Records
---
Amino acid sequence: MVRPLEERFRTVRDLFPEFRVETRRGRLLVNESGTWQHNTILFQLLFQLVGPVAARGWEIWPNITVYLGQHADRYVPDLTVVPETPRMEEDHTVHGDSTLLLVSVVSASSFYDDYFVKPGDYSPNGVPFYLVIDPFRREVKLFSEPGGKEYGRETVAMGGEPLTLPDPWNLALDTGKLLYGDDGA
């Protein structure tokens, strides 16, 4: 007898806690941790987010599953920002509409999912902001204004250009530091 995907997901997640376990379109995906470049990008983003997040009483979670419905795919963003008391489905699963920002750093194997699949699942589930940092294209893309099957707004900044996270953030990200580790020069 084949076990339901949700049961297999939980089993694999429990067996491999050091890996990122997701479901996508009926498939279980077990992803290794990021490269040093991937982690440097996340460090640079954390450096820019930590002050505003702490000042508002929010939290940054690096390894949490996003709940998008009972039969929906399960994603584990590279970073998730949540309010002081987010709505949880389980201890390791936060509701998408109870997040403040989800972040994906594009890898060679995640391009299509990061740009096309995930936004189509996040928007109808009320994820307010989805940030895609793409070191290959040297761009940062912000999906905002969720509603229906797609986001109402997509803002792109090339490496070195500022990217503003709108209200409640009101924060300009330095994409040069994200993509180059410095001022973009």
Note: The domain at 34-180 is CATH 3.90.1570.10 (tt1808, chain A).
---
Amino acid sequence: MPRNPILSASRIRTAALHIIDRDGLDGLSMRKLAAELGVQAASLYGHVDTKDDLLHEVAAEILAEVDVSGFAGGDWRHGLVSAARSYRAALAAHPNIVPFLAYGPAHREASLRRLDLVHGGLVSAGWSRREATMIAASLMYLVFGAALSSFSSGFSEDQALYRDRYPNLDKAHLLPSVARELDHDSFELALEAFVTGLAVRERAGAVD
């Protein structure tokens, strides 16, 4: 048995993500990560150069769950829907790292490959390069908007707060109890409206 725990890139990423899930993005430090792994901080640098590099590696592992295979069949609608749903699910599993991911793909090779497939799938379907870029960006706005906050859970459960001052929100106190279901259905509604709107635009000949 080795006297010191054996480190691996995978073990470091797993421990780092555990800290982020538990303590938040700001709660991760190389010193805390080393303590979590039972090693000295200097030992980590044989596997990762900086905390920022580590975050990109953790991000790449999380986003590996994003499914862009739907674009391969030439159906851009199916591609967008499957990508959006899997993207939201990946982010929902680790909400504390979402602010870091919201900065974009940066230099993450896997993220850039996925984006390349999305962009290529849209262009192959007839969208211009500019429109494809806008559609991909809009999809990210939709997904990250859903991941960064919960509209429903942001209400108070105190009925009196709304009943007298906001008569049209007299049932708002019930929203936190159904937040998970309502947030899911709201995302699906927004996704459907997004894809349907694009389809109308395509049929109208607005693709340029």
Note: The CA atoms of residues 128 and 208 lie 5 Å apart.
---
Amino acid sequence: MTAPTTVRYGELIPCKTAFIDAHTPGSDQKENFTIIGGGVSESADQHVHITTPHGFNIGAAGQPPKCRNSLHSHRTAEVFFVLSGRWRFFWGRHGTAGEVVLEEGDIIDIPTGIFRGFENIGTDYGMIMAILGGDDAGGGVIWAPQVIEDARDHGLILGENGKLYDSKAGQTPPEGVHPMPTLTDDELADFPELSPMQVVGWGVRRYNDMTALARHRPCKVIGATGIIRDKPGFEVDLITRTSATDTPHAHDRPSVLMPMRGHWRVTWGQGADAGAEVLAPGDTMSVPAGLPHAAVPSMTGEASLFHIVSTDDPAGPSWLQ
């Protein structure tokens, strides 16, 4: 039986030209990582670490202080948890409908169909981990009109085929491929301006609260019965030292382990197929379907781990159902 595949934090391969705002001042220092699945990168330079379909995508964004990700939207769920740093998330047509600051370990499930962005407001390089619904992540990114216009002023053109072309490097869309049109006023009317209560009250959960709920059993963070009641095509659990078990279990589909705090020893298989590996914060492990495995902390101190597995729910808009 196939062993798990692990992507180490220190071995992540970044892409600095992943999106249309790669040259736009204030956004030109960000790094994008695609860990599992094709992601939503618009650049052929994006490296994909694990291509096996999981029913969702796993990615990450690394940014220095004061660097932001421009306003965009997705057709499927977008969930973030803060691995390191301090981050401001904002939303709305112009990014002024609301905002929230997330600390390390906090998680946000951003409703589909709204423009959102984020920036590192900490003092050091920060990293946020992302889960995107569906194997194709909704077919790409929908940008606010001003983002496309600003990018064009700085040499980047997004083709209607979803690919980027750098005019500063002499690139132009091939014959028959037109620039991506900006959304019309009628189309923009379909993107609601949600209030802070609608976004924060529904889709933000704090790390300390989740670990308190995970004291005796794993905390169902996102799911039909989760503390965020959403069905985005996957479920997210938080497991802590006191709710972890060394009893092996298996899933009928691939699952993912992502430590937040501490070191975790993952064991799997039996006999000649048995194996073990220690994961640290920032590492991502993909466990194959049907493989019995268990994860427990390997050292003393605080320990927490996010567990993600797909469901049979559609990967499209589902919030507040």
Note: The chain has four helices and 24 strands.
---
Amino acid sequence: MSAVLAAAALVLTAGCSSDGGGGGAPTDSGSTTPGSTAPGSSPSRAADQGPPAKGSVKVLRTVAEGLNTPWGLAPLPEGDLLVSSRDERTITRIDGQSGKKTVLGEVPGVSPAGEGGLMGLALSPDYASDHMVYAYFTSAGDNRIVRMLYDEQKPTGEQLGAPDTVFRGIPKGYIHNGGRIAFGPDKMLYAGTGESGDTGLSQDTKSLGGKILRMTPEGEPAPGNPFPDSTVYSYGHRNVQGLAWDSQQRLFAAEFGQDTWDELNAIKPGDNYGWPEAEGRSSDSKYHNPLAQWGTDDASPSGIAQAEGSIWMAGLKGKRLWRIPLKGTEAAADPQAFLEDEYGRLRTVVSAGGDKLWLVTSNTDGRGDPKEGDDRILEIQVS
């Protein structure tokens, strides 16, 4: 084993919550209290001041199964789904009704290793006219974002065009590669990155590691960004893999902690979210505190989505779906857990419109315990 891989293995077995624990090794979460909300967050509130304190989840159906290391999910306008395979480097189209899988092709340049590979997917905000699919992946030298033309009129296997690199230079590592991308209500492209195991990058606003980035669809710094000529939107993050907006166009992000606290944050441009100086809440006013936090055994959060006035957060090591009811940018009630240990590790959650969500499991990622049918995409109804 090389020195680099040996060091990575040590990090993974030393209690890192980045992607749900180090190869199944136990971690000291620093707390046995599941769903601990940040001090100062409100308890249950009246229904007219926010969503109900208690919600519900109903699994409507299994949309598809037999997927290998699924990671990113992008719903197509007509109801089908595109899903990425982190390790196989492929994008597959899933028929939204029958679950039939059609492999569109392998994305060139992807170099899977550890937590890296082909990860987040997003459709262009002008997809109806430009048919562009965006992907975040780990290459041999960095993490980058590309876009590809998806031409459904071409023969199967030839429909995915060559990747055009939109943005490059995001630090890569065996761990903490971030990977989530999403277009916001402003039609700008947002990306959650990790600090690649180099904690010093998070506090360096000139580094792209440990950040939320905001850019134009062409990869240029977006107008109004807090740092001149920079795509950096917020910093002091450890490993961001969840991005979602509420009905008021406010951005929220989920972040992996190390040994103590995982976080759900309300994102304010230019703010410092503390890592590595703070994990979870801090008494230091220069760090933006999370609106909710969890012991790392209970969450290890990846994807998030907004529906019915709440953020819904997929837990990897926690093997559950968390509901965080919102009142503005605060938690309106204690987080509530669903599907605990029912489907194993949960990677991605995406709005399916109204009160429905798509939920992707992650049991074939090397840290789960795959059962027959894994991995799968579920359609769920929430309230």
Note: The first strand starts at residue 57 and ends at 64.
